[in-house]
């Protein structure tokens, strides 16, 4: 399974935000599609952030064991 690239996800979220900012009259169907896409990106980004946090904790435990 490919890991989520946080930078790419954040860039896509920024593009969605800009899309909304640039619309004078938001098409409800297109807007809903963009919102769903944003929610999916946020979900996978949160999961990836948790994985990164756990990886940092593992590294800290290793360093604490080697140094202490």
Describe this structure as you would to a colleague:
The protein is an all-alpha fold and 68 residues long. It has one domain. Helix content is 82%, strand content 0%. Helix 1 (6-21) runs antiparallel to helix 2 (28-67). The radius of gyration is 18 Å and the shape is rod-shaped.
Q: State the order of secondary-structure elements, H for helix, E for strand.
A: HH
Global morphology: rod-shaped
How many runs of DSSP E, i.e. beta strands?
0
What's the N-to-C terminus distance? Answer: 35 Å
Weakly predicted, low-confidence segments: none
Mean pLDDT: 90
Provide the structure class. Answer: mainly alpha
How many domains comprise the coordinates? Answer: 1
Percent strand equals under 5%
Helix content: over 70%
Sheet of most strands:
none
Report Rg: 18 Å
If helices are DSSP runs of H or I spanning 4 or more residues, what is the number of helices? 2
Quickly describe the structure:
This protein is mainly alpha-helical. It is 82% helix and 0% strand. The model has no long low-confidence stretch (mean pLDDT 90).
Which helices and strands occur, and which strands form pairs?
Elements: H1 6-21, H2 28-67
Helix pairs in contact: 1-2
What attributes does this structure have?
mainly alpha; single chain; 68 residues
């Amino acid at each position: 399974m490919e890991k989520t690239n946080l930078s790419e996800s954040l860039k896509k979220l920024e593009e969605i935000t800009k899309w909304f900012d640039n619309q004078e009259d938001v098409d409800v169907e297109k807007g809903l599609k963009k919102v769903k896409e944003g929610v999916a990106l946020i979900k996978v980004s949160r999961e990836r952030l948790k994985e990164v946090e756990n990886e940092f904790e593992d590294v800290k435990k290793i360093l604490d064991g080697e140094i202490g």
